[in-house]
Amino acid sequence: MREVTASAPGKINLLLRVGRPGADGYHPLVTVFESVDLRETVTVRTVRSPGIQVRTRARSADGSVDEAASRQLDALPPERHLAARAARALQRLASAGPWASTAAGVRLDVDKRVPVAGGMAGGSADAAATLLACNELWGLGLDLGQLERIGRTLGADVPACLVGGIALGTGRGDRMRLLRPGRPGSGDPVSGRPCATSRGAEGDHVWALALSDMGLATPAVFDELDAAGGPGGGWAALAEPDERLTGRLTGPASALAGALANDLTEPALRLRPDLGETLDAARRAGAVDAVLSGSGPTVAALARDEEHGRGLARAWLDLLGPREADVIVVGGPAEGARIEAESSSA
Ligand code: C5P
């Protein structure tokens, strides 16, 4: 039996500009992703029975297993579980190539730290880690560019989770250009809240993240934007960030302040007005700046450094009061998908 473990980071969007949707319903995007030290871990094992088995363990902010969320994810049909779809895509390749004899069944164990339906690309990170792990398991020898091409057929955020760091995404947000590489880090926040980070290098970012118990469906947020006729009621032509903006987004926290922007904020707040209070509370708690991550509901608040991040998380939680939110602290930019362990046994 062979076994490979890989991990991939969740992300926040530092910049998310949305253009008028095309005939396929997808919106052209200009977005800048930052991968953060909150990682999904996927272990893939060869098994005798053909097909793909998935077991998912979803974790709460404090690291404990959320049984109800885990059961819900395991009840998804395989075509809706991005990790299963990623394994299927590589299994097809493996069975078509000279590796056919090795392309037997596979079992996936998905350990989730990124909030489900949180706007942080948790499902895409599952797919990215699975692609990398299955590539290794079956010895396919695909390079990052080839995995990205397969990844974008699974979901628009999969390439970002493969590449990591701070990256510009265009097209559907799936054509990547790395702006700043990620830093290796454990990516495994210590249990409890707020989570520990190990960030200190110049230009590292420390984020407090307010996680919501209730997810937001990405298509619903895009639909809401369409119903309003675009961001601010109109569709503007999209432009890639110029050098100055790119420099700010990849620079230290002081440069990032005031540069964060997300066109999905208005529609997400119409669906979830409470998120407006979460954003306000972040600023009142002393955040350098705050932004909705992707389609939400996760809100990311930027701290000056790690110590400030811990204080910010506490102050923010106090302001949020009994609301069903939790706050953790993570660092970025994090490394993209990577192999964690490999083993073979008779
Ligand atoms: O690609 P992915 O499956 O992650 O996208 C989820 C949904 O988000 C899509 O079904 C679509 O409704 C919306 N979306 C979009 N334009 C994009 C990316 C996502 O409309 N560029």
Automatic annotation (TrEMBL):
ATP binds at P115, V116, A117, G118, G119, M120, A121, G122, G123, S124, A125. Residues 260-316 form the GHMP kinase C-terminal domain. It holds the Pfam family GHMP_kinases_N. It is an enzyme of class 2 (transferase). Residues 82-165 form the GHMP kinase N-terminal domain. Pathway: Isoprenoid biosynthesis; isopentenyl diphosphate biosynthesis via DXP pathway; isopentenyl diphosphate from 1-deoxy-D-xylulose 5-phosphate: step 3/6. GO terms for molecular function: 4-(cytidine 5'-diphospho)-2-C-methyl-D-erythritol kinase activity. The active site is at K11, D157. Keywords: ATP-binding, Isoprene biosynthesis, Kinase, Nucleotide-binding, Transferase. Belongs to the GHMP kinase family. IspE subfamily. This is 4-diphosphocytidyl-2-C-methyl-D-erythritol kinase. It comes from Schaalia naturae. The gene is ispE.
